[in-house]
Write a sequence for this structure.
């Protein structure tokens, strides 16, 4: 249409300007900074790949990577797993669908910071919810936030927080499966568990893939829970908190940026691998 | 469950019905258990917020039959949670508004116009989803210092708006792409230009996706601890998440106060969610969420 170019330009410009200033320029600048040794904002010296070689010898970063991968494993198995099981269950019931949908979504509405405080109270050794419960049963109290147990303890709220989100995505995908499929299956005598395995799951495979990629890249952003519950101590340091400490606490912007670049590359590689592993034709009805 | 009605032989019926009902009891049991994990902690925290700290410690399960409001008055007087509330609302609502306006306009172009380089723009947008805040925070901080925006409302609004635009554009554009072309032609014949087409046709039809996008952007902005800690962590502008972080390090032993702070942060959002939740589902069911 005539005059379209004017509109295209006018409508895209504000978003483009803002994103360039606060996403694209900063991202490129981070890449640039990762080649410098810095001391505050004003003192920087080009050091080539020195920061990157440091990455590979930094044992704290190695530990943070392993901790992130451990949480990722729990997220894939439990968060996505529970979400899928709950979605299959809710998809199969006739009464109360709306109720469960609403209630399962509750945790997402709550901030990670608030959930963390909640779990501070739940895990507290002397009078937390869990130990209070154990005391009632006459079992000895457990130190939940211990050297060895902290990461697992923090993984629990992390997983619990977003189950509802993926649950809704799965349920939505399932509700789009045309009923003909199920009717045909019923004629063949395929019901219940078999139906889930042979019909529902294959038909929503592309959604499972999307959810897995969201969950995996989401794990790389984990910060709130670790920061408030343990400040990254007791073997709970993850990539996000380590980057924050290096860049914003030690004010080592150069190396902090290098870690950030590492996180981005890690995320891209993991998404590509997931995409590759689950490669299958998309199904359209 | 219907196969019992659909011509199964008489004698098989009882067994079939029994397995079905066992299955559904099991299903409801599991679902009820999970809902307990999402409801009970909320109840527990609200309940404890009405007790003095000593009672929280001694018996956190007892129901607060004689509720005390000490924790709430403390929250407002000692840590000025009211101020943080106002800060949070100002910044998050501004972020949502900006994201919807700028994102809506851009999404309209991405959904309905053809121009050179559109596929490139689209790919860049999708790739942007892979850039976490960690990878932009240092230069953004530098920019904000240069523009004297650190510890001002704009210091959080601008980066958060930019950070959420990608999601909003992709989701809204995906929704708008499903609006039939005929509608557009009819409006055009009625004398709509491109802009009035946007305001009179596209905006009203896309209301569900705007609603669900606004909910998510609001939640992500309101709950974003990382940016808040860096860009707006001074008392006069501090949003509520940053205050919660402060509470956990400064008042970590005042359990009543912590419980009331968590309740105050969570309950209003939860109530708003209950009122507008149907929009979330509608926006998500239209197939929009898939980036």
């Amino acid at each position: 249409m005539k005059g379209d170019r004017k509109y295209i330009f006018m409508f895209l410009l504000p978003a483009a300007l803002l994103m360039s200033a606060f996403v694209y320029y900063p991202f490129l600048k981070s890449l640039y900074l990762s080649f410098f040794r810095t001391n505050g904002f004003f003192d920087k010296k080009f050091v080539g790949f020195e920061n990157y070689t440091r990455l590979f010898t930094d044992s704290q970063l190695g530990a943070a990577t392993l901790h992130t991968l451990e949480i990722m494993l729990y997220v894939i198995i439990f968060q996505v797993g529970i979400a899928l099981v709950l979605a299959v269950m809710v998809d199969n019931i006739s009464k109360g669908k709306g109720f469960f949908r609403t209630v399962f979504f509750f945790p997402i509405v709550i901030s990670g910071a608030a959930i963390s405080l909640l779990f501070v109270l739940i895990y507290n050794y002397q009078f937390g919810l869990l130990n209070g419960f154990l005391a009632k049963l006459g079992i000895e109290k457990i130190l939940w936030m211990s050297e060895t147990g902290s990461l697992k303890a923090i993984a629990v709220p992390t997983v619990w927080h977003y189950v509802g989100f993926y649950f809704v995505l799965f349920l939505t995908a399932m509700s789009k499966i045309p009923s003909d499929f199920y009717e045909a299956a019923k004629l063949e005598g395929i019901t219940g568990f078999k139906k889930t395995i042979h019909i529902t799951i294959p038909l929503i495979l592309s959604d499972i893939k999307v959810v897995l990629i969201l969950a995996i890249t989401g794990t790389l952003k984990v910060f709130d829970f670790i920061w408030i519950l343990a400040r990254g101590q007791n073997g709970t340091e993850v990539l996000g908190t380590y980057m924050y400490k290096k860049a914003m606490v030690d004010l080592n912007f150069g190396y902090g940026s290098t870690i950030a670049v590492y996180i981005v590359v890690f995320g891209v590689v993991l998404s590509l691998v997931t995409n590759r592993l689950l490669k299958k034709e998309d199904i359209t009805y | 469950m219907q196969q019992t009605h659909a011509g199964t032989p008489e004698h098989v019926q009882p067994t079939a019905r029994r397995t079905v009902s066992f299955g559904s009891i099991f299903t409801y049991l599991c679902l009820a258990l999970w809902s307990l994990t999402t409801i009970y902690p909320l109840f527990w925290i609200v309940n404890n917020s009405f007790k003095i700290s000593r009672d929280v410690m001694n018996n956190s399960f007892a129901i607060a039959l004689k509720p005390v409001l000490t924790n709430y008055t403390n929250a407002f007087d000692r840590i000025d949670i009211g101020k943080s509330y106002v800060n949070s609302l100002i910044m998050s609502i501004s972020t949502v508004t900006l994201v919807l306006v700028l994102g809506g306009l851009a999404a309209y172009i991405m959904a309905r116009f053809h121009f050179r380089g559109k596929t490139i723009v689209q790919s860049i947008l999708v790739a942007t989803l892979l850039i976490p805040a960690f990878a932009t925070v240092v230069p953004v901080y530098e920019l904000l210092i240069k523009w004297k925006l650190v510890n001002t409302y704009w210091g959080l609004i601008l980066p958060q708006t930019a950070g959420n635009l990608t999601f909003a554009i992709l989701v809204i554009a995906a929704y708008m792409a499903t609006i039939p072309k005929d509608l557009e032609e009819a409006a055009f014949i009625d004398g709509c230009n491109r802009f009035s087409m946007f305001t009179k046709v596209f905006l009203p039809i896309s209301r569900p996706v705007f609603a669900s996008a606004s909910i998510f952007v609001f939640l992500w902005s309101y709950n974003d601890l990382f940016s808040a800690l860096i860009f707006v962590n001074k008392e006069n502008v501090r949003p509520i998440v940053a205050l919660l972080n402060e509470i956990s390090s400064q008042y970590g032993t005042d359990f009543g106060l912590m419980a009331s702070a968590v309740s105050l942060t969570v309950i209003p959002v939860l109530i708003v969610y209950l009122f507008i939740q149907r929009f979330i589902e509608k926006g998500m069911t239209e197939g929009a969420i898939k980036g």
